[in-house]
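Q: I'm writing up a methods section and want to include an example of the input and output format. Could you take the sequence below and give the corresponding predicted structure tokens, formatted cleanly so I can copy it straight into the document?
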Amino acid sequence: LLVGYWSRLRKGRDVPDQTDIDPRAIKRLLSYTFILDCETPARPVYRLAGTALCERFGFELKGTSFLGHWESQSGMALASLLRQSLALCQPVCLSSVAATADNGMVELETILTPVSFNSAEPTRFFGLVQMLSDPTPLLGRAIAYERLVASELIEEGEPLRQYDQDEPP
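A: Here is the clean output for your methods example:
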């Protein structure tokens, strides 16, 4: 949904501008969205973060480091992915495992779509985090860290993957 919305906002440009984002158009997703400032991709910072996302991490994310809650090896890979996504003007999908301090684990998917901010070059991301597994391990607990499991640059026009109906999700 987020990539489709991002694509519609572009209107023939490489990336949409942050000011094109209309919160009313994505109101059901809004509490799980965020904006990252990536002027320096090695040190991305949350500009804004939805309330549900802040609750998952147990604190207000605005002004904090996006890489701060990722384990170190994942953080290095992410900095490179962010640079690549901005340079290619392509969204990126991150698959991760998040854990609480007492080792409760959930699977997350994070979509990052590059956006500009009053310039031609993208320096920010409009993102969305969604839970792919049972949220029970997070009930009453905050995410302590995340580990990157997989990533993929998303190209428009690619057919959706076909999954074998007999395989478990």
